[in-house]
């Protein structure tokens, strides 16, 4: 779902950050769909998910958690900066 944030009266940087969140959300949904397709295919072929895939997914999960924390802190600093 695309939202036009420019009509909300936000600054350019706020609009860009929200757009980046929207893009990240879209990419995560696409990734989730792809992972489900891969998992279903692997389960049919090998009767389970390989250990290597599980390790890779754990690494990806850790990296996504770091990205999430960075975005969260950026939004927090934007909000506190705009309140001053």
From TrEMBL:
Protein name (record): DASH complex subunit Dad3p
């Amino acid at each position: 779902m695309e939202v036009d944030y420019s009509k909300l009266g936000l600054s350019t940087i706020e609009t860009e950050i929200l757009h980046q969140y929207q893009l990240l959300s879209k990419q995560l949904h696409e990734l989730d769909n792809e992972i489900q397709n891969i998992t279903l295919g692997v389960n049919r072929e090998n009767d389970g998910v390989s250990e290597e895939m599980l390790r890779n997914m754990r690494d990806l999960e850790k990296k996504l958690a770091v990205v999430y924390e960075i975005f969260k802190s950026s939004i927090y600093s934007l909000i506190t900066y705009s309140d001053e």
